[in-house]
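hey team, just a heads up i'm posting the complex here instead of the shared drive bc the drive is being weird again. everything in one block, sequence lines first with there labels, then the predicted structure for the whole assembly after. its two chains so it's a bit long, scroll down
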Amino acid sequence: MTPPWRNPWRKPYLLATFTWLYILWSLVPVLIAVQFSFNDGRSRSTWQGFSTQWYCCAEGSVGEDPSLLLALQNSLVLGGATVLVATPLGVMLALGLTRWRSRTSKVANGIALVPLVTPELVVGSALYLVMVNLYQFVPLGLPAMLLGHVTFSVSYVLVVVRARLLAIGGDYEAAAQDLGASPLQAIRTILVPLLMPSIFASAMLVFATSLDDFVVSQFLFGDAANVTVPIKLYNAVRSAPTPALNALATLLLVASFLALLLAYVGLRARRRGERSALEDLADYG
Amino acid sequence: MAEPPHDHRRTTRRLWPALALPGTIWLVALFLVPVYAVMAVAFSGDINLFGEPIPAWSPWDWQFATFGQVLSDSISGPYQAVWLRTASYTGIALLICVVVGYPVAYYTARLAGKRRGLVLALILAPWWINYITRMLAWVNLLQDDGYVNKALGIFSIEPVSWLGGNPLTVVIALAYGYLPFFILPLFASLDRIDQRLLEASRDLGVGTVRTFLHVTLPLSKLGLITALVITALPMAGDYYTNTIVSSSPRTTMIGNQIELFLLQGPSKNFGAALVLLLSLVLLFFMTYYLILTQRASRNAR
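-- predicted structure starts here --
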C-alpha cells in the first residue's frame, strides 16, 4: 500500500485545510447556481423550494423558450460538426508529422502548436477580420464558427494522438510491412486500432472544448439565429436573468461532463495500472 | 504466390506528407492568413463608403498612421489608463493565483493513494465547467441581496455593491476564473520533484521552511513561470469576465477596448492595431519565457 502522504515531515494539516477550502471556493458557487436552476420561483438569490419548472414547462423555461432551445441545439450541432471535421484532420496531421521527418514537418509542427498558446482574443479577432474581409464566401454564423472551432481543436487532437503515437513506436507498422502490408494497410489495420482509445478521447475533448468556447464563437456568430449556450448566458446574465438561465447552464454542464466521462473511460481502457487516466487528462488540458 | 516483401519506402515517403497536407493547409488558411489579416487591417490606409477600413493586403500599401496613433495614445493618451489597468488587474490576479495556487498544487502533488485521485479530480473539475457558467454563478452570489451580502450581514457589515464596476470584484473574478489553468502546470512540475530529495533534506536536519526555499522552490521555478505565462496570456486579453461582473467603463481592460472597436463600431483598424500591439507585448513575454526554458534545459544537461 502506498502511504497517503509523500512528504517526509508530519502531515500538513494547514495545507490540507487550505486546499479543501480552495476546492469549496472553486466548486460551491457552481453548485449553488445548479441548485437555483431548481428554484420554485423567479429569484436567483433566494431559495423558494424545489421545482423542475425552469427545465420544463413554466413560461420562459428551457423547454418553452425557443431562443434557449435554439442555443442548446446550436451548441450541440456545432460541437458534433467540429468533432467530425477536426478529429480526422488532427489524426492525419499527427500521423503525418510524427512519422515524416524533415525540416518542413518541423515547421508544420511548430505552426500546429502555436494556436494552443495564442490568446483566444487574438484568435477570435483574427478569424473575424479574415472572414469579413477575405473569406466573404463563408457566412458568419454556424459555418464560420465551425471553421474557427476546428482551427483550435486540430491542435488538441494533434497533441493527444501524437503522444500515443510516440509511445507505440514504429515497430508494429514495420512488422506489418515486412509481412507484405502496404503502408496504407499498415495504418488501417495496425495503427488506427492501436490509436483508437486516444482518437476517441481526443474527439470527446474536442466536443467538450467546443461546447465550452465563448470567445471565438462570439466573434463569429453573426446574428441571433446562431447564438450558442455560452453566448446566450453571456448576453442574458445582466439583462433578463431567470433561473431558466441556470437550467440552461446546468444542461451544458451535464453535456460536457458526459463527454469527459467518455474520454476518461476511453483513456482508461488502454492503460491498466500504468498511470491514471486522470493524470493524462491533466497533461492534455 | 505471395508477392515478395518488397520495399514500400518509396510510397511511404509520399504518404506521410500527403497525410499532413490537409491539416497544414487548414492551419495556414485559418490561422496564419487570419493573423496576417489583422496586420492588413491595422496597416490599412483607406476607408470604404461605410467608413470601414479597406485591408492593405500588400505590404507595399501598408500605412502606419493608425498604428502610430494607437501607439502614442497607448503611451500617453486615452488608452494609457486602460493599459495600466490591464497590467495592474492581471498582476494582482496573478499574485492571488500564486498565493492560493501554489499551496494547493504542492499539497496535491505530495499526496499519494486514493485521496490523490479525488483531490486531483476536484481541482480539475472547474477546467471543464464552462467559464461563463462559473462567472454566472458568482453573479448570482454577488447580487445586492445575494448570499455574499447576506453572509456579510451576519457580521453586521453593510451590503457591498459588488457588480456595479467594483475593481476588487474584477480582480477576484479573474483570479477565480484562471486559477485552475494556473494550478495544473504547477502541479505537473511539483509532481516531478523526486521524493528522495525531500527525504535527503530532512535526513540532513533541514526544516520544512528551508527545504521549501532551497529545494522545492528552485526545482519548481520553471513550472511556476510556465503557470504564470499560461495564465497571463489569456488573462491580459480577457474582456468577458470584466463585462459579466462589472460592465462599467471604470474597469475597462484592453480586451474590452478591442471588442468594442471590432464588434460594435466601424473603427476596425483601431481594433486591429490594438490586437497587434497586445500580441507584441505578449510575444515579448513569451520570448523571454522560451529563452528561460532553453537555458534551463541546457543547464540540466
